[in-house]
């Protein structure tokens, strides 16, 4: 139980317009189904295709799995709430949603770093690639991503469990958000807000900056490659960099600021929580010939 009488929160949702709610319900339902199926298709394709055994595809499998899990945590609740005028979430449900969002989000951050490192080794140290990126190291890096996500989410939740809420219990959002909860708390939340901003926003800004630097190094090293190798490397790195931008920019916007909310938060959250998990499989399949060919071969095999 929370240390107060507030046992649930009322979510104002994305819009109060009944007609727009029905349209958004259909749109979000389609996006959810497409996101889950597309990411699971990537997982199945890579798992069953012997041609996709490189470390890059090993990491892509887990990225797709995280995206499918992430959208399953956020989108169904958001979509179903569009059918109701009164939307609520329990205290424990709110904490669970926060934990899962930051657990999966933190794991994806570390995984994106790992994938950038994989591309750096493949392009800048090609002769040592198979020696460095062995199966055992790849598995260890994935375990580190999961553990890092758990630690990140646990730190965030520990700051929330002892907050006192006196009312009102209305959140001007369509899902639980740290800053929205901090604004409702009765106690002084300035220090907690700064820690949350440093933990989520500061780390996102730092990691994004390091990833930008890593891609500058990678691009500068491509001058020594042939035209075909340069084209293939640019295509792979371009897809990965696009995913990085789509993921980190909303995080930086949401958390690198004082504890406050703004009307733009809802649109940023829609992009981050609903659209980004859908765009990732599209980006990686459209720009990756090997994945597209493996998907076609798998579908032909199943049809036959």
Question: Mind explaining what this structure looks like?
Answer:
This protein has 304 residues and is mainly alpha-helical. The chain has a single domain (8-303), classed as Rhodopsin 7-helix transmembrane proteins (Rhopdopsin 7-helix transmembrane proteins, Up-down Bundle), CATH 1.20.1070.10. 75% of the residues lie in helices and 3% in strands. It has ten helices and three strands. It has helices spanning 18-48, 55-81, 91-124, 129-132, 135-160, 178-184, 190-221, 227-255, 264-286, 289-303; strands at residues 8-11, 87-90, 170-171. It has a three-stranded mixed β-sheet with strand order 2-1-3. The longest helix is centred in the middle third of the chain and has 34 residues, at 91-124. The mean pLDDT is 84.
> Helical content, roughly?
over 70%
- Please give the count of helices: 10
CATH top level?
Mainly Alpha
Largest sheet: 3 strands, mixed
Low-pLDDT stretches are: none
| Gross morphology | globular
- Indicate the mean pLDDT: 84
Oligomer: single chain
- CATH homologous superfamily designation: Rhodopsin 7-helix transmembrane proteins
User: What name is given to the CATH topology?
Assistant: Rhopdopsin 7-helix transmembrane proteins
User: Structurally, how many domains make up the residues?
Assistant: 1
Second CATH tier, the architecture:
Up-down Bundle
Radius of gyration: 21 Å
H/E order of the elements?
Answer: EHHEHHHEHHHHH
């Amino acid at each position: 139980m929370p240390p107060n009488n507030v046992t649930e929160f009322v979510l104002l949702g994305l819009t109060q317009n009944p007609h727009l709610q029905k349209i958004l319900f259909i749109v979000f339902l389609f996006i959810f189904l497409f996101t889950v199926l597309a990411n699971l298709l990537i997982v199945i394709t890579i798992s069953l295709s012997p041609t996709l055994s490189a470390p890059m595809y090993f990491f892509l499998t887990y990225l797709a799995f995280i995206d499918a899990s992430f959208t399953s945590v956020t989108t169904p609740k958001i979509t179903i709430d569009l059918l109701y005028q009164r939307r609520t979430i329990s205290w424990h449900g709110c904490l669970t949603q926060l934990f899962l969002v930051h657990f999966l989000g933190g794991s994806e951050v570390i995984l994106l770093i790992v994938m950038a490192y994989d591309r750096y080794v493949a392009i800048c140290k090609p002769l040592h690639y198979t020696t460095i990126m062995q199966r055992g190291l790849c598995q260890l890096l994935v375990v580190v991503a999961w553990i890092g996500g758990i630690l990140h989410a646990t730190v965030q939740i520990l700051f929330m469990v002892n907050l006192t809420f006196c009312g009102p219990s209305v959140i001007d959002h369509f899902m639980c958000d740290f800053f929205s909860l901090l604004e409702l708390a009765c106690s002084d939340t300035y220090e907690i807000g700064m820690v949350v901003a440093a933990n989520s926003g500061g780390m996102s800004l730092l990691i994004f900056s390091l990833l930008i630097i890593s891609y500058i190094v990678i691009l500068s090293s491509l001058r020594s490659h042939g035209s075909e190798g340069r084209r293939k490397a640019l295509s792979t790195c371009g897809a990965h960099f696009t995913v990085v931008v789509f993921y980190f920019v909303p995080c930086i916007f949401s958390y690198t600021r004082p504890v406050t909310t703004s009307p733009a938060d809802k649109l940023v959250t829609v992009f981050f929580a609903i659209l980004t998990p859908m765009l990732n499989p599209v980006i990686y399949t459209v720009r990756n010939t090997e994945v597209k060919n493996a998907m076609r071969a798998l579908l032909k095999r199943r049809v036959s």
